Amino acid sequence: MTHYLAYLFYSPFSLLVFLIIRLLSPIKIIKFGLMNSHRIGHFSIEWEIFYHSVIEKKNEYLILSFHKEISNIFFAEMIKKKVKIYPTKFVKLIQVLNNSYLGNKKHEINFQEYIHDKSNKLINFSPSLKFTEKEIQKGEKILSKFEKKKIVCLLCRDGKYLSEKYNFDDSKNIRNTDVNDLTESLKELEKKNYLIFRMGKNVEKKLSYTSKNVIDYANSDFRSDFMDIYLTFKCDFFISTGGGLDGIAIIFDKSVLYINYIPVGEWPVASDKFLFSYKKYFDENEKKYLSLSKIFENNLAYKYKKENELNKMGFSLKNMDSNELKDAILEMEKYHRNIKISDEQKIFKKKFALLIKKYPSDKNYFGNIFPTISNNFLKKNPFFLD
Fold it and tell me: Taking the model in full, what pTM does it have?
């Protein structure tokens, strides 16, 4: 009942603003939009690209709000310090009115269009969001219980969070990775004097190996929306299988290592600060792995298939083994401090660019920058360049 009363309260104000928007339309375009705040990956990346594409120019009047669900309350508060955020129901009613025959789509911002950095706005950029001194003190107080060391964040996608949030089974999603496949990698990072925080929210498994330097933060009593953002902001580099929170690493201009990444041709932001290593497609009939060319040729580059769909096509998917994971991570430990691209990596980039032209997506995902593959991964899997 309260829900409907709130809409009733905002109705006259939304109608008035909608009429003003339409009346001013011939001389001034006023735009409105609801950010996709219900998923932190979309929320963060779409915000940052929109900020640098539109807000930073300061030449448009905007009426912005969040989705009714907010994936990270602290991140939403950071955005509120940068722009005016209106009540969700108020903007939702404007959207409903604009979808009638009286409206015009030119007024509505589709934030989904900002999930891919088509114009490479997030290259040599200054992050839009800042922590206050008080917030930094809060974060450092929480971190003071640990030794003062360089920080690495690790995010392994599993199916539990989305399964429980949206009431469907995501446990068999081929993008998932068992976090405990990385045990040896974590120990190697620990030897190099890093603090490693396993990130996540409502995760499927606990870390099988922890220590004073390897912290299962996702299952800790100090996990919070604030610390999700602060730890990512503080880290030296971020390791991810491809999941929402790495969007925060991206918008804070962090180096990111992608492990077991899939699909090869779809990611939101391109940068030479990122290293990629992939799950491998295996042809069960030919008894060999698919090259990058064959992945594109078989329409596997842009969208991932379900396991049963892959099987019907005669393919299976193989995860990186523990040595491949360890080698890619140790490479990233050096790479993030001194970014140099090898001749083999340049060949991969060129091949990728040619395949994008030969097998174009229906979207221009990442402008003119193509992925940098892990050298160590490529050495162990040279078939990628066949």
Answer: 0.95
